[in-house]
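> tool_call: predict_assembly(chains=two)
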Amino acid sequence: MREIQEFTLDELKHLFSPKALTGETMVLNMGPQHPSTHGVLRLILELDGEIVLNCVPDIGYLHTGIEKNMEGKTYQKAEVLTDRMDYMYTMGNNLVYCLAVEKLTELKSPARADAIRVILLELSRLQSHLLWIGTSALDLGAMSVFLYAMREREMILDVFELVSGQRMMTTFIRPGGLWRDVPVEFEAAVKKIVEVFPKRIDSYEALLTKNPIFMDRTKGIGKIDTKTALAWDVTGPTLRATGLAHDIRKANPYCGYEQYDFDIPTQTTGDVYGRYQVRVEEMRQSVRIVEQALNKLPYGPVRDNNPKFVPPPRSEIGVSMEALIHHFKLWTEGFIPPVGSVYCTIESPRGEMGLFLESDGSPKPYRAHYRTPSVPLLQIMPILSKGCFVADLIGIIGSIDIVLGDTDR
Amino acid sequence: MGLEQKLGNTGVVTTTLENAVNWSRTNSMWPMLFGLACCAIEMMAAQAANYDMSRFGMELMRASPRQSDLMIVAGRVSQKMAPVLRNLYDQMPDPKWVIAMGDCAACGGVYNNYAVLQGVDEVVPVDIYVAGCPPRPEGLINGVVALHNKIKGEQFAKWK
């Protein structure tokens, strides 16, 4: 049994104002086990009555050592770990890793694979936003939105299960394309989602957007302006809610996002309500992208056929000696990308997600470092929560949509 | 309800105290609202409309350990979280049970490294292990039903 770590106020006094030591203000510990912290986040609050004077996030309760573990695995095996970082956007974690490996090697993903990637990524964004709208509304007291959102989320998870056999940790996107082609039922299942979702998003909005209780709890709460947001490296819906239309999908397109017609929703308020409006509009735009990608889904291969990096199909192994050798080499030694380092970014539902990958000419990555969007979002917590009520803090944590697996890795 | 048929003509039911207590414990179990990582999302899915754990008397998730009697460890437990987890377990009133949900909570899963506890049974006694990364909601419900069966067989003392 481990010792239980306890802090005394003396050890933490540099984080708080001198008033905390004289007893004029109160230091309150919130988390790591708290229903509204969306994971194992610990916030140390300094309170003057009901007003938050200071808020110090304490992260690391979910530190998993994924980046270190990736250094000990071959490029194929390391990808499995990436699923479990930002567990609300597993396809995106796979994608940023695959884009980095593709940039490092001469692999190129075919057109059909790119289109399917876009569909799956936008569905992932939808399911992440669905869980966000459910849980953040639940925190503010709206129970039914959660039940509706989880119902629709199951439709998306069914599609993931259809293509990969797993609901969440799919590892479906692989370096050079996809693991395999999608089954024939895929198009009908996605078409159903495209048909159903706009109406369902309307029904969430009917419950929340003009709801006076929800508006009172969110308007003017947790404000931030564009300049501060940029200074703290904040990206994603939190930045877009301040008025800056920055989206990696437009600024630096990947997977053929430039072919699709979609808008970047922005708001100028920069508060919790603004972030809510941006995310709801993003859900509609995601449905739009999925519809376009599905309508012009090209046919063809779904994986690069470079045998040095991509395992040969099962049918070839029995008849071709070369295929057998490639297969053996790939699954025993792994593939060897050239020496070099790359940085790749994608737009996750929370903001810019980047991967710095360095290869030293061995089959294992020398260093993999993720730039995850949740860390800057937690860093601005003291700015967002200064002067607000404790009850509003719950809404603010929900509105920045942090995933602790993404923060701590 | 179906109970009326069991009452007979006199309205008296005979059973042992053990049976009656264990029956009530299984059907009014209050799990702690405590999510760690990916599995917590599937735990929420199990609570939501499609799977609806309230069919098994578990709709009431309590945020306070002092009001709950089942801890579902949903996700990987880091070295930093382990003392907190034990603290929470100690705060739960007896009788209490633990379900280790998912591979990480059961054995460390894919993470054999410096940061992750190699199975939550290093810090708290575990009753049921649920396999999967993450387990489907049906998997968790199966674990809960297995726990119910275990509780139904519990004895208060060694009877002669």
